[in-house]
Amino acid sequence: MMEKTGTRTGAAWGILFGGLAVFVAAPALLLATGHDTIKPSADSAKELSLAGALIPALAGILLIHGIPLHAPRLLPPSTDRRVLRRQATALALIAFLWPLALFLVSSAGQHALVRDIWALAKPLVFLALPLFLLRILRPRGEPDPFRLTWRPRQTWQWLAPIPAVLVFGWLYVLGPLAPPLPSAEDYPDPVILAVGATLTFFTANVLEEVFFRGMLQTRLEALFGRWPGILLASLLFAWLHLPTHGQGTLPLTLGAIVAFQGFFGLFTGYLWSRYRNLWAPIAAHTAMNTLPLLLM
């Protein structure tokens, strides 16, 4: 019997239906305006198809749902919901305000500044600052009940996510709807590329999953339930890409980041919620960001 992950309050129902509405409206907006392909970033010359973004994420979600194994105790009991609410609010504010600040800087014409600090500031914003806030906001003298563990105890927690991650990676990188693989001419010297790929692995593949799934989503699930928590964390994850994934107009940019990064967040969020193995969403993130480079 699966343990409940939160009380389905009025706020939880609002997040559930509001989040679902946003995820339906985003691809509908893109299709209605004739944007069935978008640029992966504001300064990219290539485009990715909408179907190529949605189908791998949805296929992964269906596979996760179809495998009966799941964590029997999704969350530890929370004795003080006020502390939990403060922690979740602090993390959500970081996730909302940091991209907003960078977007305002970029809108003022400082695009180079945003690119320079985008990756370098992530360890401070998404690791050091959250850990500091979680420490001072927890009950004095009590351990953190949501402390992340990097080694799941059960073997099935390592094996069960493999089909979904492999299918997602194949569809996203090599499938019939996948974008063309990059050519060597698209990238700089191999040494520079290796340094950049390593930096991306730690600042995007690892740090983003630790913060958005391990820290933020876990607490949102405890407050509102599994799917409201996944939806809200995924929308904030999509919002993270606002400063770097501009598509011209703001509505088009918002639709694009929800349809691409948001649906990917649903997939990795479900991976984390279902198996509580942080390496699973990190592997999926690596397949999306790093695997194309390895196949060059």
From TrEMBL:
Pfam families from the xrefs?
Rce1-like
Please verify whether the record's keywords include Transmembrane helix.
Answer: yes
Domain CAAX prenyl protease 2/Lysostaphin resistance protein A-like: start-end pairs = 194-290
Keywords carried by this UniProt record: Membrane, Transmembrane, Transmembrane helix
Residue ranges crossing the lipid bilayer per the database entry: 12-33, 48-67, 88-105, 117-137, 158-178, 190-211, 223-242, 254-272
Put simply, this protein is called CAAX prenyl protease 2/Lysostaphin resistance protein A-like domain-containing protein
